[in-house]
Amino acid sequence: MVDEDRRSPAAVVFDALGSEYEKAFAASAAHRASLEWLLERLEPGSRVLDVGSGTGRPTAAVLAAAGHRVLGVDVSPVMVEIASRQMPEGEFRCADIREMPLGDAAFDAVCAYFALLQMSREEQSGLVRRLARALRPGGFLVLATVPLDVEDFDGVFMGQAVRVTSFAAQDITALVRGAGLTVLSEESVMFTPTHPDARPEPQLFLHCRLDATGPAG
């Protein structure tokens, strides 16, 4: 058993939530539409990195069912165990994406659905640049976040204490563009997770392509 004091805050939260997280977000039409946007643009058998892969559903499951090769990475060992059990054909790794080596131009697409919110702004900015470098030129990044101008905000998420940092919508869009990505489309929605302790939250989905010349910086 992993010592809770040595786990990252995100691992502690999502270890506790487990499959309840999947149930709470299963009704997200915006998430499904975002995956459809990506599926329409991927070449057959594309290599996709799923950052914060959770239980493997829906992101990794939908992409794998369409014939793509997905690597799911999550900091929560409980989530990785659930994903590996639900998708034995999948590839899931328990790792901190901030520390995990990523090869240059190694992926045709990267998905990062709500995976950045427990990182500092500096870490989020650095990670987006690293994810851009991990894309082949012309590859796609799909990123979803809660677009609030908050830093180290102590809140409660589905009954779990969380400390959240995020950017306002225009700032996360500027961050993505600064990494050499073109925002092809974006969608803003309000969504209430299906959970008794959940509250309505704004969500921003950005659908991006890496410029053919490669990432900035």
Question: Which terms would index this structure?
Answer:
alpha/beta, SAM-dependent_MTases_sf, 217 residues, globular, disordered N terminus, 29% strand, seven-stranded mixed sheet, transferase
Can you give a write-up of this model?
Helix 4 (59-65) links the parallel strand 1 (47-51) and strand 2 (69-74). Helices cover 31% and strands 29% of the residues. The chain is built from 7 helices and 9 strands, in the order αααβαβαββαβββαββ. Residues 1-5 have low confidence and may be disordered. The strands form 2 sheets. Strands 3-2-1-4-5-9-8 form a 7-stranded mixed β-sheet, sandwiched between helices. The chain has a two-stranded antiparallel ribbon with strand order 6-7. It has one domain (4-210): 3-Layer(aba) Sandwich (Rossmann fold).
How many strands in all? 9
- The CATH homologous superfamily name equals Vaccinia Virus protein VP39
Structural class: alpha/beta
> Roughly what percent helix?
25-40%
Q: In terms of quaternary structure, what is this?
A: single chain
Shape, please?
A: globular
* Largest sheet, strands/sense/barrel: 7 strands, mixed
Mean pLDDT: 93
The top-level CATH class is: Alpha Beta
Number of helices: 7
Physical arrangement of strands within the biggest beta sheet: 3-2-1-4-5-9-8
Write the H/E string, N to C. HHHEHEHEEHEEEHEE
Strand percentage, roughly? 25-35%
Q: Rg, please?
A: 16 Å
CATH fold name, please? Rossmann fold
Span between termini:
40 Å
The name of the CATH architecture is 3-Layer(aba) Sandwich
Count structural domains: 1
- Low-pLDDT ranges: 1-5
GO molecular function, one term: 3-demethylubiquinol 3-O-methyltransferase activity
Enzyme class: transferase
Protein name: Class I SAM-dependent methyltransferase
Keywords: Methyltransferase, Transferase
